[in-house]
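Archive entry. Fields below.
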Amino acid sequence: MAKNTHSNIEHIHDTEQLYRSINPNKNLYSYVDGKLKFSSAAFNDRKFEPSVDRAILRDNNPHLTKMTESAGVVALDALSIREISVDTPDISHQLDPKAAPTRGNKAHAIITGVPSYKDENGFKKAKKKLALLAEKNGWCIEPINNEFG
Amino acid sequence: MTRLATAALTRFEFPPYLTSFARSTPGQANNKVAGQFDAELIKIDRGKLKQVYAKLDDMKTWHANWDDYNANKPNAKAIKKAEQFIKELFEFTEQLQCAWLSPNITASSDGEVLLEWWGKEKDLTIYLSATEITYIKVKHDDIDNMEDGNLDLNKNIIGSLWEWFII
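PREDICTED_STRUCTURE:
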């Protein structure tokens, strides 16, 4: 079984936390009757593979994931993501976070659909489910947004 | 009046959390107090509508990478289509004298406009591109059975989705 250690850099263990930075200024979240709601667009990605950071490779410091100083951060656990499936007319896609280190960010990972989405429709449902999952967890770091205080 | 509209008028009841947005039913239209109440709420709703259009207008100023993840800037034709969609939906709610709620407004990576309504039990998401409109509807207690599909700017089709959301 994979261990949740730095040495196991290629596999994301189920217990790992994954950070996602969320821009505070473009209506990517709101509060409805005091309840935090995330837009599906909080998980936008042009390749249908939203970027996240592996907490364990960010010293469990979500501040290091913030794309801007005022951004918020949510944390999702890998197992909850893997439990998400998305049905399209032809096939069911299972979500799976995969390590995707870059030169500047060894913690970088992506949330893929398995098998890959044929078109945007499956990904739109996946984004919605990720937004609902993020709502359950709430902010890891609250954004700085004048509109919501 | 269409069958859909008739059905909505005869069985429309607001859930408790929407009562503050509710107007009187047609049967109350001759009631003077209810009438004044209606006029006041219509005025409030018009104000909300202006805010929606202002938010859509603001999207024209968003630049590429507005979400920090390399998104395209919102498509001007999609914004125009969203304005038309809002107009059709608002007119539907006026005709049926049913609740109007302003959506969350943002965009996708490809420049589509997203209109999102978040309820206590259901969420409705509309994606508008330059060429098509799609929707996703989900009940919170049954998220594995999300429904999606295509729409056009037909008031009754839009209205049937709205009816699903608010009832």
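CURATOR_NOTE: DSSP finds two helices and nine strands in chain A.
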